[in-house]
Specification:
By secondary structure, the protein is an alpha/beta fold. It has helices at residues 14-26, 52-59, 91-98, 119-126, 146-156; strands spanning 4-8, 29-32, 34-35, 65-66, 77-83, 106-112, 134-135, 139-140. The longest helix has 13 residues, at 14-26.
Amino acid sequence: MSNILVAYFSCGGDTKRCAEAIAKAAGADIYEIKPKVPYTEADLDWKDKDSRSSVEMRVLSRPEIEGSVHNMNSYDTVFVGFPIWWYMAPMIINTFLESYDFSGKTVIPFATSGGSDLIKAEAVLKARCAKDTKWLDGKMLGELSDADIAEWVKSCVK
């Protein structure tokens, strides 16, 4: 078992591809953050203000996660990946971060998006962890090749 974990939430597959590239480059374990109730295509329709994802973001809900990381205390570094929704991380990422104690750990966010950045998402997510959690600057990875992702990983986990 590695002391690095890559935890990710993905709907369309882009974030999953990036998570797998990070895990390979870092020799890390990987954990998919899955909602207890899977999202349907209609749930993810961001143009529909009444879709499940739109409502979750508006009311700041905490969707339940299926399963858990049973050995979280054994990881020193956790990459956390997600697509950007409404300039933020999906609410399930808040659920994930609030479910574990990240004291003394290094957290490195990464995201995929059609055009947003990580600035607002990072600020909100940092508040979900213990004050002594070390945060490294995150990165938008959606357009990067696996080789470029591997270079970034090397700069994070020296």
